[in-house]
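Two quick folds needed for the group meeting slides. Do the first one here.
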Amino acid sequence: MDSDRTSPGVGQADPIDTLPPGFRWGVATSSYQIEGAVAEDGRTPSIWDTFCRVPGAVAGGDTGDVACDHYHRMPDDVGLVADLGLDTYRFSVAWPRVQPGGRGPANPAGLAFYDRLVDELLGRGIDPWVTLYHWDLPQELEDAGGWPARDTAYRFADYAELVVDALGDRVDTWTTLNEPWCSAMLGYVEGVHAPGRRNLGDGIAAAHHLLLGHGLAVPRLRAGAGRPIEVGITVNLATADPATDTSLDRDAARAADGLGNRLYLDPLIHGRYPEDVVADLAAQGVRIPVEDGDLPVIAAPIDVLGVNFYFGQLFSGVDEQGRDRDADGAPVRRVVRRDLPRTAMDWEIVPESFTDLLVRLGRDYPGVPLVITENGAAFDDRPDADGFVADDDRVAYLAEHLRAVARARLAGADVRGYFAWSLLDNFEWAYGYEKRFGIVRVDYDTQRRTPKRSALWYRDTVRRVRGQR
């Protein structure tokens, strides 16, 4: 790693040290990626259990059947969080574990796992941060139409009420959805995530109904808790900048920003869909299935906006041959690769774009506190004979991005916390177990956990920043 990417510069103060005393420090995971135990205690299949059985859908034919076996090793994993000195653990609840089939009453055995998890966290002085949906839709609901079907939004609100009834007395912060863009676009348009559909109309309907489900759930969470709680949603955002100052490149960047960012942020915060995105979709014969009253529901006031950031991109409105229309006559929107360091996911490392994004959120969507609910990187980790990983590239990535957060705060962005993705190496969706994001290494043969150098760096950084107060 280039030395000027791993430190703030000789003789310069580290921006990380400007993070305030009340700043949250955490790690994040998700249910299907770590829990395993997919057929235990009444859990029924999710769309990911089904998708993993589709030949060629997941690298190596991998599944989440065992994953990190967190379902059986949960107390020890909470101990890892405590050992790192972190104050918050963000996890997701598996819908088909709590409400098998996606309808009807709660499954007591499934809820009991999360009840024990919350108590274990609180007993260690760690705040539980619940995400209700991290992509594991009950298969029965997909069979009934999935997220493109409006009814799924109502089923989600019912499920949210079941969970808050059980945990609302102890959990202070609730996230409805994780990354609705991924659920809608990767799952229903590009087909590379469960359930594997490829239809733009389905994807746009899914996006709207995901947001509607969020809005329907918000008041039910507040009522079900019976006490003040914080409710929010997590969106994955990326910068979309024009490769040049030509009108074609600027329009390509506008369109990418619209479909990737503003399609979600505008209805959530401003109660409307962006007009240019609606027009872009109409040109492709697609409409957002908004019904009367939907937008005020979606714009229910939230207390926190979770931001997941991994990369930024440049866009061009012409292809490599200089054409501005593709074979179907649609405008070209091409990602332009830059000569930049990349992660094992082939994602460009652009921490300065992270600062730009956070400052832009404070400007365009003011009044909602931000928490970085995911940020991290996969690299080709190589353990030594003892299983230890000297992942200096990941240390550099985390340091760069924490500095980007600190710089955004200094520029006025109201960022109140940072959660590294992820606590553990885990099932990385269509990549199976090939890609490792964890700050703790998991030996999938033995399930042995070994904190990597990045975990130790993160622990020491948190201690250092807190110790300066």
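Then this one, please, same format:
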Amino acid sequence: MTTGLFVGLATVDVVQRVERAPGPNEKVVSLRADVSAGGPATNAAVTFAALGGRATLLSVVGGGPLAALVRGDLADHGVEVVDADTAGTSRPALSAVTVVDATGERSVVSRNAEGVEVEVPAELGELAAEADVVLVDGHHPRLALAAVTAAHRAGTPVVVDAGSWKPVLAEVFPLARVVICSSDFRLPGGEPPGPGLLDDGPALVAVSAGADPLRWWSRDGSGTVPAPAVVARDTLAAGDVLHGAYAFGVAEGQSPVEALRLAVRVASLKVGHVGPRSWLTDPKLLTVARGGTA
């Protein structure tokens, strides 16, 4: 079975769906509420497992009721967890998410991994060597750098989810095969992502842009991948899903461009569904993954 190691943030996402975003000092009643595990690497791992891979998440989960929720949700969706907090003293970050019903646009407030110190598990080298692909989101810098270093030594391809700049990425990019950025990503000087990132070492750089075509650059060329036309119902974690599907394509031996096309198809399917997990039960998922249309 295709195997992926996902290293990064695990949160508890409390998602409220509203007719409109509330203004200052305003209270509104939501149309729907969902609670699930979240975080870039976590959602990518769930996607990888949904496509038929064996996904392992290395993160800080810790103990307490919120940690139990994360573990339970991930177990339900076929993701194995390796917890870097063996003492169980940490608690997952809580993310407050608002999704506007008419547009599917989301806003997020979260502590992420701020102030969390971790130890690198002894089994990380073995996990990276046994995986067909390693994805990092940079939210636990020590884990991210250790994971990409171990993967590089083992010859395992590394995919970086570059949603926002983190200082550790300066050390991670040279060891990565692929860097996929959001359109909001900016380098420390304010420069947007583009082919210049190839100078840091990756073989391919891509920039996702929601409903607009995904752009990519490699040392052999460049191009775009258009997104299928869909009615966006919920854009929460769409980028995470794209990264997880790309990692699955790489692990299955697809070319970088083939994997990008797979990633765009799966992410487009996801945004057509309300809620963080409802898309996983869409019977069209595996058809889309094999190259069909939604």
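Slide caption for protein two: The mean pLDDT is 93.
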